Amino acid sequence: MNLQQLRYVVATAEHRTMTDAARSLYIAQPALSRAIRDLERELGMTLFARSGRGVVVTAQGRRVVKLAREALDAVHEIESLAANTHAAGAELRIASTPSLEPGLAGRLLPAYAAEHPGIRVHIVRCDGRDSVVSAVREQRADLGLTDLPVPTDLVTHPVERQEIVLISPPGSGLPEPVPLARLTGTRLLLPTAGSPRRREFDHIFTTYGVRPVVAVESDDRTGWLDTVREAGVHLLWYRAMAEPAARAGLEVRSLSPALKKVIAVVHARRRLPAMAQDFLALAEGGSAA
To answer: Who's near 158: CB < 8 A, 6+ residues apart?
Structure first.
Protein backbone atom coordinates (compact mmCIF):
# COMPACT_ATOMS: atom_id res chain seq x y z
CA MET A 1 0.00 0.00 0.00
CA ASN A 2 1.26 3.50 -0.80
CA LEU A 3 0.13 7.13 -0.50
CA GLN A 4 -1.21 7.16 -4.03
CA GLN A 5 -3.53 4.27 -3.23
CA LEU A 6 -4.71 6.05 -0.10
CA ARG A 7 -5.55 9.12 -2.18
CA TYR A 8 -7.48 6.89 -4.60
CA VAL A 9 -9.52 5.41 -1.73
CA VAL A 10 -10.37 8.81 -0.25
CA ALA A 11 -11.30 10.32 -3.62
CA THR A 12 -13.57 7.38 -4.47
CA ALA A 13 -15.30 7.61 -1.09
CA GLU A 14 -15.83 11.37 -1.50
CA HIS A 15 -17.13 11.33 -5.07
CA ARG A 16 -19.13 8.05 -4.90
CA THR A 17 -18.54 7.30 -8.59
CA MET A 18 -15.36 6.01 -10.19
CA THR A 19 -15.78 8.44 -13.07
CA ASP A 20 -15.95 11.55 -10.86
CA ALA A 21 -13.15 10.29 -8.61
CA ALA A 22 -10.90 9.60 -11.59
CA ARG A 23 -11.65 13.05 -13.01
CA SER A 24 -10.69 14.69 -9.71
CA LEU A 25 -7.42 12.74 -9.68
CA TYR A 26 -6.66 13.45 -13.36
CA ILE A 27 -6.36 9.75 -14.22
CA ALA A 28 -8.36 7.43 -16.46
CA GLN A 29 -11.36 5.71 -14.87
CA PRO A 30 -10.22 2.16 -15.81
CA ALA A 31 -6.85 2.84 -14.15
CA LEU A 32 -8.56 3.92 -10.94
CA SER A 33 -10.83 0.87 -10.96
CA ARG A 34 -7.84 -1.43 -11.41
CA ALA A 35 -5.93 0.28 -8.60
CA ILE A 36 -8.88 -0.10 -6.22
CA ARG A 37 -9.30 -3.79 -7.16
CA ASP A 38 -5.56 -4.39 -6.66
CA LEU A 39 -5.71 -2.77 -3.22
CA GLU A 40 -8.77 -4.81 -2.24
CA ARG A 41 -6.92 -8.01 -3.22
CA GLU A 42 -3.88 -6.88 -1.25
CA LEU A 43 -5.96 -6.17 1.86
CA GLY A 44 -8.24 -9.14 1.41
CA MET A 45 -11.39 -7.06 1.85
CA THR A 46 -14.02 -5.26 -0.23
CA LEU A 47 -13.85 -1.50 0.18
CA PHE A 48 -16.55 -0.44 -2.30
CA ALA A 49 -19.73 -2.08 -3.54
CA ARG A 50 -21.46 -1.06 -6.75
CA SER A 51 -24.82 0.69 -6.40
CA GLY A 52 -26.54 1.75 -9.61
CA ARG A 53 -24.07 3.91 -11.52
CA GLY A 54 -21.97 4.65 -8.46
CA VAL A 55 -20.31 2.92 -5.52
CA VAL A 56 -20.98 2.78 -1.78
CA VAL A 57 -18.40 2.32 0.96
CA THR A 58 -18.65 -1.02 2.75
CA ALA A 59 -18.44 -1.35 6.53
CA GLN A 60 -14.79 -2.41 6.27
CA GLY A 61 -14.23 0.30 3.70
CA ARG A 62 -15.44 3.04 6.05
CA ARG A 63 -12.73 2.12 8.53
CA VAL A 64 -10.08 2.08 5.81
CA VAL A 65 -11.25 5.45 4.44
CA LYS A 66 -11.07 6.98 7.93
CA LEU A 67 -7.54 5.68 8.47
CA ALA A 68 -6.51 6.75 4.95
CA ARG A 69 -7.67 10.31 5.66
CA GLU A 70 -5.75 10.33 8.93
CA ALA A 71 -2.62 9.06 7.19
CA LEU A 72 -2.86 11.70 4.46
CA ASP A 73 -3.47 14.40 7.08
CA ALA A 74 -0.32 13.25 8.89
CA VAL A 75 1.68 13.51 5.67
CA HIS A 76 0.30 17.01 5.02
CA GLU A 77 1.25 18.03 8.56
CA ILE A 78 4.79 16.78 8.09
CA GLU A 79 4.99 18.74 4.83
CA SER A 80 3.66 21.80 6.67
CA LEU A 81 6.36 21.45 9.31
CA ALA A 82 8.97 21.41 6.58
CA ALA A 83 7.38 24.46 4.93
CA ASN A 84 7.33 26.37 8.20
CA THR A 85 10.94 25.42 8.89
CA HIS A 86 11.86 27.12 5.62
CA ALA A 87 9.37 29.96 5.95
CA ALA A 88 11.15 32.17 3.46
CA GLY A 89 10.23 29.75 0.68
CA ALA A 90 6.77 28.81 1.94
CA GLU A 91 3.75 29.32 -0.29
CA LEU A 92 0.12 29.67 0.76
CA ARG A 93 -2.33 28.76 -2.01
CA ILE A 94 -5.77 30.38 -1.94
CA ALA A 95 -8.45 29.55 -4.49
CA SER A 96 -10.83 32.40 -5.34
CA THR A 97 -13.58 33.26 -7.78
CA PRO A 98 -13.02 36.28 -10.07
CA SER A 99 -15.67 38.41 -8.36
CA LEU A 100 -14.11 37.92 -4.91
CA GLU A 101 -10.46 38.21 -5.91
CA PRO A 102 -10.38 42.05 -5.85
CA GLY A 103 -11.45 42.08 -2.20
CA LEU A 104 -8.97 39.32 -1.38
CA ALA A 105 -6.11 41.11 -3.10
CA GLY A 106 -7.11 44.56 -1.89
CA ARG A 107 -7.88 43.90 1.77
CA LEU A 108 -6.68 40.55 3.09
CA LEU A 109 -3.45 39.92 1.21
CA PRO A 110 -1.71 43.22 2.08
CA ALA A 111 -2.54 42.71 5.77
CA TYR A 112 -1.31 39.12 5.67
CA ALA A 113 1.88 40.04 3.81
CA ALA A 114 2.66 42.72 6.38
CA GLU A 115 2.56 40.13 9.16
CA HIS A 116 4.18 37.27 7.18
CA PRO A 117 6.68 38.84 4.76
CA GLY A 118 8.48 35.54 4.18
CA ILE A 119 5.44 33.69 2.85
CA ARG A 120 4.43 33.95 -0.79
CA VAL A 121 0.69 33.87 -1.48
CA HIS A 122 -0.42 32.28 -4.73
CA ILE A 123 -4.00 32.89 -5.88
CA VAL A 124 -5.48 29.86 -7.63
CA ARG A 125 -7.90 31.50 -10.05
CA CYS A 126 -11.17 29.59 -10.40
CA ASP A 127 -14.12 30.32 -12.66
CA GLY A 128 -16.74 29.72 -9.98
CA ARG A 129 -17.70 28.14 -6.67
CA ASP A 130 -17.53 24.57 -7.98
CA SER A 131 -13.97 25.17 -9.19
CA VAL A 132 -12.97 26.53 -5.77
CA VAL A 133 -14.41 23.42 -4.12
CA SER A 134 -12.49 21.17 -6.53
CA ALA A 135 -9.23 23.04 -5.96
CA VAL A 136 -9.54 22.62 -2.19
CA ARG A 137 -10.62 18.98 -2.40
CA GLU A 138 -7.81 18.10 -4.79
CA GLN A 139 -5.27 19.94 -2.59
CA ARG A 140 -4.36 22.39 -5.33
CA ALA A 141 -5.23 25.09 -2.77
CA ASP A 142 -4.85 25.23 1.01
CA LEU A 143 -7.85 27.54 1.39
CA GLY A 144 -10.73 28.72 -0.78
CA LEU A 145 -12.66 31.97 -0.83
CA THR A 146 -16.20 31.62 -2.15
CA ASP A 147 -19.83 32.24 -1.38
CA LEU A 148 -21.96 29.65 0.38
CA PRO A 149 -23.29 27.02 0.27
CA VAL A 150 -20.54 24.47 -0.37
CA PRO A 151 -20.61 20.67 0.14
CA THR A 152 -20.58 19.54 3.76
CA ASP A 153 -17.25 17.71 3.45
CA LEU A 154 -15.58 21.15 3.58
CA VAL A 155 -15.20 23.32 6.68
CA THR A 156 -16.59 26.86 6.31
CA HIS A 157 -15.61 30.05 8.11
CA PRO A 158 -17.94 32.96 7.20
CA VAL A 159 -16.02 36.23 6.89
CA GLU A 160 -18.53 38.71 5.43
CA ARG A 161 -21.85 39.23 3.70
CA GLN A 162 -21.74 40.68 0.21
CA GLU A 163 -24.61 42.49 -1.43
CA ILE A 164 -26.08 41.46 -4.77
CA VAL A 165 -26.61 44.52 -7.00
CA LEU A 166 -28.12 45.26 -10.39
CA ILE A 167 -25.63 46.33 -13.07
CA SER A 168 -27.33 48.15 -15.95
CA PRO A 169 -26.45 49.83 -19.25
CA PRO A 170 -26.17 53.64 -19.25
CA GLY A 171 -29.42 55.60 -19.20
CA SER A 172 -31.60 52.80 -17.81
CA GLY A 173 -33.61 55.28 -15.72
CA LEU A 174 -34.16 52.86 -12.84
CA PRO A 175 -34.69 54.08 -9.26
CA GLU A 176 -32.20 53.64 -6.42
CA PRO A 177 -32.74 51.14 -4.90
CA VAL A 178 -34.51 49.01 -7.50
CA PRO A 179 -37.57 47.17 -6.13
CA LEU A 180 -37.25 43.47 -6.89
CA ALA A 181 -40.71 43.61 -8.47
CA ARG A 182 -39.23 45.86 -11.18
CA LEU A 183 -37.18 42.89 -12.43
CA THR A 184 -40.34 41.36 -13.92
CA GLY A 185 -40.04 41.89 -17.65
CA THR A 186 -36.45 43.16 -17.33
CA ARG A 187 -33.97 41.68 -19.81
CA LEU A 188 -31.29 39.92 -17.77
CA LEU A 189 -27.96 38.28 -18.44
CA LEU A 190 -27.97 35.07 -16.37
CA PRO A 191 -25.75 32.02 -15.89
CA THR A 192 -26.67 29.11 -18.14
CA ALA A 193 -29.82 27.14 -17.35
CA GLY A 194 -29.22 24.19 -15.04
CA SER A 195 -25.99 25.56 -13.56
CA PRO A 196 -25.76 25.90 -9.74
CA ARG A 197 -25.65 29.72 -10.00
CA ARG A 198 -28.68 29.78 -12.25
CA ARG A 199 -30.64 27.58 -9.87
CA GLU A 200 -29.89 30.03 -7.07
CA PHE A 201 -31.17 32.97 -9.09
CA ASP A 202 -34.23 31.01 -10.17
CA HIS A 203 -34.93 30.30 -6.48
CA ILE A 204 -34.71 34.03 -5.71
CA PHE A 205 -37.09 34.83 -8.58
CA THR A 206 -39.57 32.22 -7.37
CA THR A 207 -39.34 33.40 -3.76
CA TYR A 208 -40.11 37.00 -4.68
CA GLY A 209 -42.54 36.26 -7.53
CA VAL A 210 -40.27 37.88 -10.12
CA ARG A 211 -40.47 36.94 -13.81
CA PRO A 212 -37.54 38.50 -15.70
CA VAL A 213 -36.80 38.00 -19.40
CA VAL A 214 -33.77 35.77 -19.93
CA ALA A 215 -32.06 37.73 -22.71
CA VAL A 216 -28.56 36.22 -22.54
CA GLU A 217 -27.18 33.08 -20.90
CA SER A 218 -23.45 32.94 -20.30
CA ASP A 219 -20.97 31.57 -17.75
CA ASP A 220 -18.07 33.58 -19.23
CA ARG A 221 -17.68 36.25 -16.57
CA THR A 222 -14.86 37.98 -18.43
CA GLY A 223 -17.35 39.14 -21.06
CA TRP A 224 -20.33 39.98 -18.87
CA LEU A 225 -19.76 43.72 -18.57
CA ASP A 226 -19.19 44.09 -22.32
CA THR A 227 -22.45 42.19 -22.93
CA VAL A 228 -24.37 44.48 -20.57
CA ARG A 229 -23.16 47.53 -22.46
CA GLU A 230 -23.44 46.16 -25.99
CA ALA A 231 -26.65 44.12 -25.69
CA GLY A 232 -28.48 46.53 -23.38
CA VAL A 233 -29.19 43.86 -20.77
CA HIS A 234 -28.96 43.92 -16.97
CA LEU A 235 -26.80 41.76 -14.69
CA LEU A 236 -27.30 40.61 -11.10
CA TRP A 237 -23.98 40.11 -9.33
CA TYR A 238 -21.94 41.02 -6.29
CA ARG A 239 -21.06 44.52 -5.12
CA ALA A 240 -17.38 43.61 -5.69
CA MET A 241 -18.04 44.06 -9.42
CA ALA A 242 -19.35 47.60 -8.91
CA GLU A 243 -15.97 49.32 -9.40
CA PRO A 244 -15.07 47.61 -12.71
CA ALA A 245 -18.68 48.15 -13.85
CA ALA A 246 -18.43 51.87 -13.12
CA ARG A 247 -15.11 52.07 -14.99
CA ALA A 248 -16.88 50.45 -17.94
CA GLY A 249 -19.49 53.24 -17.88
CA LEU A 250 -22.28 51.07 -16.45
CA GLU A 251 -24.78 51.85 -13.70
CA VAL A 252 -24.87 50.00 -10.37
CA ARG A 253 -27.90 49.99 -8.06
CA SER A 254 -28.92 48.25 -4.86
CA LEU A 255 -32.03 46.10 -4.67
CA SER A 256 -35.00 46.37 -2.33
CA PRO A 257 -35.30 44.25 -0.30
CA ALA A 258 -31.54 43.82 -0.14
CA LEU A 259 -30.09 40.47 -1.22
CA LYS A 260 -26.88 39.31 0.42
CA LYS A 261 -24.75 36.18 0.21
CA VAL A 262 -22.38 34.87 2.87
CA ILE A 263 -18.72 34.82 1.80
CA ALA A 264 -16.53 32.26 3.55
CA VAL A 265 -13.05 30.83 3.69
CA VAL A 266 -13.32 27.06 3.15
CA HIS A 267 -10.90 24.19 3.59
CA ALA A 268 -10.75 20.41 3.78
CA ARG A 269 -11.39 18.60 7.06
CA ARG A 270 -7.75 18.28 8.05
CA ARG A 271 -5.23 20.08 10.17
CA LEU A 272 -4.21 23.27 8.40
CA PRO A 273 -0.57 24.36 8.08
CA ALA A 274 0.30 27.19 10.43
CA MET A 275 0.46 29.77 7.64
CA ALA A 276 -3.10 28.85 6.57
CA GLN A 277 -4.31 29.05 10.17
CA ASP A 278 -2.81 32.54 10.43
CA PHE A 279 -4.58 33.67 7.25
CA LEU A 280 -7.86 32.23 8.52
CA ALA A 281 -7.51 34.09 11.81
CA LEU A 282 -6.89 37.32 9.91
CA ALA A 283 -9.91 36.76 7.61
CA GLU A 284 -12.19 36.00 10.54
CA GLY A 285 -11.16 39.30 12.09
CA GLY A 286 -13.65 40.91 9.67
CA SER A 287 -17.42 40.87 10.08
CA ALA A 288 -19.94 38.42 8.76
CA ALA A 289 -22.82 40.69 9.62
So the answer is: 148, 262, 263, 264, 288
228 in Cβ contact with 235 (< 8 Å): yes
pTM confidence score: 0.56
Strand 54-57 relative to strand 48-51, pairing: antiparallel
Residue 2: how many other CB atoms lie within 10 Å: 8
Give the pLDDT confidence of 188-227 residue by residue, as tens digits. Answer: 999 999 887 888 899 899 999 999 999 999 988 889 999 9
